[in-house]
């Protein structure tokens, strides 16, 4: 389970995250939504130990990321903008990560095949398309067979078949009792993937609950999103 408890992050006089609380539970895909500048990235970075919180807690399985004994075996993550060295071959990139976490080389081949990169495993990353780089990022997140997945814009650059694969995979992953926290700007895709939704704006939670609860009274998730955030458009940080 992911637990965010009274989390705040301040940069001088700006509050990127302002006392937010929510959970992402096992067996569910939880959508994490908000306009640009709403505080999503700051929250995810704190959750993954990349930034320090001003106050509050961000826990994975009841522990801070830095206190996890085997991080990659507990949580797999893909953050927008993160990527391997362009000159490195995909299989070498994943093998280095696997070795650092005592994961077998056989698992590297498994995840490359799983995401559809088996035949491109020895190609250098600089020759990959954006969609292929996204698949490689997902493969890295899956290396440790984690109980928790945290993905930021995982379908960015994917073709329709790739998007459908991600949607099906994440729902099956959660159905096996694992926790998935998914951030995306694609409302239609989120509506077809998420069981629960958390919407933040200007650093605060403005709505959370099951997909049905958040969209109650609205035609779609998109219309609910804009109704909840539209009168406060514009980044706070």
UniProtKB/TrEMBL annotation:
Keyword set, alphabetical order: ATP-binding, Nucleotide-binding, Transport
Record-stated family: Belongs to the ABC transporter superfamily.
SMART domains: AAA (SM00382)
Residue ranges of domain ABC transporter in the record: 2-227
Protein name: ABC transporter domain-containing protein
InterPro entries (alphabetical): AAA+_ATPase (IPR003593), ABC_transporter-like_ATP-bd (IPR003439), ABC_transporter-like_CS (IPR017871), P-loop_NTPase (IPR027417)
GO terms assigned for molecular function: ATP binding; ATP hydrolysis activity
PANTHER family: ABC TRANSPORTER, ATP-BINDING PROTEIN
Pfam families attached to this UniProt entry: ABC_tran
Coiled coil: none
The UniProt record lists the keyword Lipoprotein: no
UniProt keyword Membrane present: no
Phylogenetic lineage: Bacteria, Bacillati, Actinomycetota, Actinomycetes, Streptosporangiales
């Amino acid at each position: 389970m992911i637990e965010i408890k009274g989390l705040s992050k301040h940069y001088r006089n700006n509050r990127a995250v302002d006392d937010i609380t929510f959970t992402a539970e096992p067996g569910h895909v939880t959508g994490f939504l908000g306009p640009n500048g709403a505080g999503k990235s700051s929250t995810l970075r704190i959750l993954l130990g990349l930034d320090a919180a001003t106050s509050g807690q961000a826990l994975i399985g009841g522990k801070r990321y830095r206190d996890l004994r085997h991080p990659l075996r507990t949580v797999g993550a893909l953050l927008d903008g993160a990527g391997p060295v362009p000159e490195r071959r995909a299989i070498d990139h994943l093998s280095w990560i696997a070795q650092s976490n005592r994961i077998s080389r056989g698992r590297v081949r498994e995840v490359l095949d799983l995401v559809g990169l088996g035949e491109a495993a020895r190609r250098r990353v600089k020759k990959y398309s954006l969609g292929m780089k996204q698949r490689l990022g997902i493969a890295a997140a899956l290396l440790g067979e984690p109980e928790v997945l945290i993905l930021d814009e995982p379908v960015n650059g994917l073709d329709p078949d790739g998007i459908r694969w991600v949607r099906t995979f994440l729902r099956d992953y959660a159905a096996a009792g694992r926790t998935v926290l998914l951030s995306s700007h694609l409302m239609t895709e989120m509506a077809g993937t998420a069981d629960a939704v958390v919407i933040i704006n200007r650093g605060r939670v403005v709505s959370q609950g099951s997909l049905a609860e958040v969209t109650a009274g609205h035609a779609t998730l998109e219309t609910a999103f804009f109704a909840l955030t539209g009168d406060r458009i514009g980044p706070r940080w």
